Task: inverse folding
């Protein structure tokens, strides 16, 4: 395939597989992180690395971004298309194929990584912050509908 940097490969391919986790606490609140790159809230998650399963990527990203260990992941949904368009701060433009899991099984103490996120907070699904990362809006909308019917 030649000598492509990650950014060249992303621009060449255009689609980037990612995995994230909706973490729900005992009060049916969802954990969101305030991202440093766009100053908006999103679920923990990120791009998969070569050879990783989606579950491994989801667990790794959650741990890196929140210091939490998640267990018993259930597939929530897969998101793709225009709603998953993202432009990185360096100008790289991608369309995520987002594999999203949900769990209420987690352990550890919430700790902000300070790199990708600057705040972590559990929110009531009916009282989410206004500034949501655009590609997370359909995820959180689906979550709101699902929590009404108990996931």
Result:
């Amino acid at each position: 395939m030649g000598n492509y940097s990650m950014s060249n490969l992303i621009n060449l391919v255009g689609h980037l597989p990612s995995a994230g986790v909706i973490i729900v606490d005992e009060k049916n609140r969802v954990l969101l992180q305030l991202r440093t790159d766009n100053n908006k809230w999103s679920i923990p998650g990120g791009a998969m690395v070569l050879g990783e399963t989606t579950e491994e990527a989801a667990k790794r990203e959650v741990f890196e971004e929140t210091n939490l260990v998640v267990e018993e992941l259930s597939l929530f949904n897969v998101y793709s298309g225009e709603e998953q368009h993202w432009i990185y701060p360096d100008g790289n433009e991608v369309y995520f194929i987002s594999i999203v899991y949900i769990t209420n099984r987690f352990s550890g103490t919430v700790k902000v990584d300070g790199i990708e996120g600057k705040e972590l907070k559990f929110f009531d699904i009916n009282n989410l912050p206004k500034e949501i990362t655009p590609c997370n809006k359909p995820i959180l909308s689906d979550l709101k509908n699902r929590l009404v019917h108990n996931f």
In short: The mean pLDDT is 89. The CA atoms of residues 71 and 105 lie 5 Å apart. The two ends are 43 Å apart (CA to CA).
